[in-house]
Amino acid sequence: MKVTLSVIKADIGGWVGHSESHPLILEKSRELLQKTASSGKIIDFHVTKCGDDLQLIMTHQKGEESGEIHKMAWDIFVEGTKLAKKLKLHGAGQDLLSDAFSGNVKGMGPGVAEMEIEERDAESIIIFMADKTSSGAWNMPLYKMFADPFNTIGLVIASNMHSGFSFEVHDVQKHKKVSFNTPEEIYDMLIFMGAPSHYPVKSVRHRPSGEIAAVSSTQRLSMLAGRYVGKDDPVCIVRAQGKFPAVGEVLEPFALPFLVEGWMRGSHNGPLMPVSVADSIPSRFDGPPRVIALGFQLAEGKLVGPRDMFADISFDEARKQANTAAEYMRRHGPFEPHRLPLEEMEYTTMPQVMKKLKNRFTDLPE
Ligand code: F6R
Ligand code: MG
Ligand code: MG
After folding, report:
1. How far is the C-alpha of 74 from the C-alpha of 314, rounded, in Å?
2. Is any ligand 1 atom within 6 A of the Cβ of residue 268?
3. What residue's CA is closest to ligand 1, atom 4?
4. Which of 95, 119, 167, 179 has its CA 20 to 30 A from that of 217?
């Protein structure tokens, strides 16, 4: 059976500040999706949140980029925004960049990751959702899951994974894409992937079958809007088991709270902390950045789950390390590399300050 899994998310208002989603917004979204499910337009859904981001997880048979599904998600965000405005939540409707829907939510603010799959006998899926960071955050974990034998022993000892995977990498500045086959092209690939804010990974496919293994959202809100409207707070869907990495291999990269861009004012580097849904409440310095992972088995499109994968105590050490790293990074205050380089910050006063001081700059002697 062919099923499409669509994860469409938006920050339509924070409670309090940018730290959390209001329960009434989640409730309202569930109500609206329940109506759609009852009408048969979608098979199943799960509504959750990661920090201040509302996450709509849906299964249906309308394929990727379906105008009908995107419009339904858009309408829920619009309805949610009305409620967010009533509750005077912070930044109500901040990710809805247009007043009218135009066929596809891509480019309109919300983040989207979708995959159409032929459901396997057992279809294990992990959906990662992050807050206070951007889409490049998935680069290191996707590399580790699908190309690093120190993370994924299956690449070495499972015959159905031994041919490797192919990665589609996007150039978000020039609006181009390129694919790499691993393991033979990892050195060429890493020169791009190692610059995640410029070259995020869009998808990963199994070789030689070409079957989709992972897909991420690669929207860069700041670029879409031409002004600061928040970090992407991206999502990523990963298939697990069989010819894909095992669930444990998919989760393993997050045992290291690696540094990502985002955090306070989208202008800092900080550790990505793996947490349960309940703990996705970034408060310290509006962070540190969080990632949640929900696991499902698909059964004829039904979402059997979720299992809150990072609720496992075996990620306690990663959380402890993330807090230690957060403390260490914070001590750098307004200095790089805690604060992002000038051109990467989402907030800046540089043009104003430069203008003010223009006449005070004099030439250095030769
Ligand atoms: C970062 C984030 C927050 C805000 C900060 C200022 O992604 O969401 O750190 O940037 O709280 O928010 P505003 O400008 O809305 O007052
Ligand atoms: Mg927000
Ligand atoms: Mg957010």
Report:
1. 37
2. no
3. 265
4. 119
Specify the ligand 1 atom closest to the Cα of 18. Answer: 8
Q: Give the atom of ligand 1 at the shortest distance from the alpha carbon of 263.
A: 1
Residue 358 is assigned to a structural domain of this protein = no
Residue 358 has pLDDT above 70, yes or no: yes
Answer yes or no: is the C-beta of 266 below 6 A from any ligand 1 atom: yes
Q: Are 36 and 80 in contact (CB under 8 A)?
A: no
Find the domain containing 242 and state its range: 2-341
Q: Is 215 part of a structural domain of the chain?
A: yes
The closest ligand to the CA of 10 turns out to be 3
Q: Is the CB of 17 under 6 A from ligand 1?
A: yes
User: pLDDT digit string (tens) for 148-185?
Assistant: 999 999 999 999 999 999 999 999 888 899 999 999 99
Helix %, strand %, coil % for the chain, to 5? 30, 30, 40
Average pLDDT value for residue range 328-357: 93
Total domains, the chain: 1
For ligand 3, the distance from its centroid to the CA atom of residue 150, given in whole angstroms, is 32
Give residue 256's pLDDT: 98
Q: E strands within the chain?
A: 2-10, 44-50, 53-60, 111-118, 123-131, 165-171, 176-181, 201-206, 212-216, 235-240, 259-262, 268-271, 273-274, 290-299, 302-308
pLDDT value at position 344? 85
Q: Is the pLDDT of residue 223 over 70?
A: no
Ligand 1 lined by 265 (C-beta under 6 Å) = yes
Residue 32 has which token pair?
Answer: 């609206």
**Is residue 348 over pLDDT 70?**
yes
Mutation test of ligand 1: which of 18, 227, 283 has the most ligand atoms closer than 8 Å to its C-beta? 18
Query: Is 328 known to be catalytic?
Result: no
Residue 207's DSSP bridge partners are none
The pLDDT, as a whole number, for residue 175 is 86
Residue 120 lies in a domain: yes
Is there a domain that residue 227 lies in? yes
Q: Which atom of ligand 1 is nearest to the CA of 346?
A: 10
